[in-house]
Amino acid sequence: MQEEKNIMSFETVALDEAQNAVVIIDQTLLPGTTQLAVLKTAQEIWDAIYRLQVRGAPAIGVTAALGIYVLAKEIEEQDFEAFYQKFREYKEYLDSSRPTAVNLSWALRRMEAVCLQAGRQEKRPVAEVKEILHKEALRIRQEDVEVCRKIGEYGLSLLNPGDGILTHCNAGQLATVKYGTATAPIYLGQERGYHFHVFADETRPLLQGARLTAYELSCAGVDVTLICDNMAASVMSKGLVQAVFVGCDRVAANGDTANKIGTSMAALAANYYGVPVYVCAPTSTIDMDTAKGGDICIEERAPQEVTEMWYKEPMAPKGVKVYNPAFDVTDHELISGIITEYGIARAPYTESLKAVMDRKEKGEEL
Ligand code: MRU
């Protein structure tokens, strides 16, 4: 336990080379206890993602990339095809830990592509393939920092000093390697004296807004006010919110976005009150193979998360039916802009998102 250190100086997810392990902040213990978890086996990595010890789409992707490297390093086979068979088993297994955040499969596919390129196409020895996987995993991690910073710059261009900003769930530093996505403009504004007032939805049922967003923003010295999810419309009706900034787990080709359950409710209220809604989305979260929001697989989680988790006593009658979808889809019509590292996509999203992805495909500089 290292409670005296500010949470902002911890790394959300990192590679420990000496132990050959992925090291994460165990987010299930925050804000009360800051404790690192050391993940070495496939089961440990899978559990950490499933149990939300590490969560948030970009952080899940980085954990998977580092994780598959850690596992690949331990594979003993020297024949590439035998090595690849085990690699693929690990990849499929990690990919099954959570279904909605596309960053998970995106990162694993990227790792698999370099693995196949080096081992099958270029016929490199397995030891070299492992080194290439090592570099790619670290590149994915480093890119996340640069991408979030860029999203922060674009996001900040939409805001004025003193603005009130509402956010939902945690799309903060704890959901990424650094800066967060929805919080990146807030942190950059903080550096530049913008004095934002942030309203953090508590985010039922797992309270990522209360436990994580309110925590990291207050540790960073940002003016943050915690509200229950059902207070968002009230705060907007009073003119206290000039923009909604949220993250996302998957953006469909038409601009529909899946994010933490309750996001669409905040977006509906914001549209009623004329408050713009911005979705912050690294291109790793944009899934052009999914045509529309209705095609996104929405994770359903255990009823106990609604009835008893985080409470001293169960808060519902024993055996009551519970519906617990972890995400919802915000219709693209409710979204004023999708902020990527390549700029802000606006409606019609089928065209603007394609243009963003084309720039990425061409490898344009950020
Ligand atoms: O279930 P979680 O905590 O992983 O859900 C996280 C979110 O919904 C975030 O808003 C999203 O992943 C974007 S994180 C930059």
UniProtKB/TrEMBL annotation:
Pfam families: IF-2B. Gene3D superfamilies: translation initiation factor eif-2b, domain 1, Translation initiation factor eif-2b, domain 2. GO terms for biological process: L-methionine salvage from methylthioadenosine. The record marks 169 as: Transition state stabilizer. It is an enzyme of class 5 (isomerase). It comes from the Bacteria. The active site is at 249 (proton donor). Its EC number is 5.3.1.23. InterPro entries: IF-2B-related, IF-M1Pi, IF_2B-like_C, Initiation_fac_2B_a/b/d, M1Pi_N, NagB/RpiA_transferase-like. Substrate binds at residues 55-57, 98, 208, 259-260. PANTHER family: METHYLTHIORIBOSE-1-PHOSPHATE ISOMERASE. This is Methylthioribose-1-phosphate isomerase.
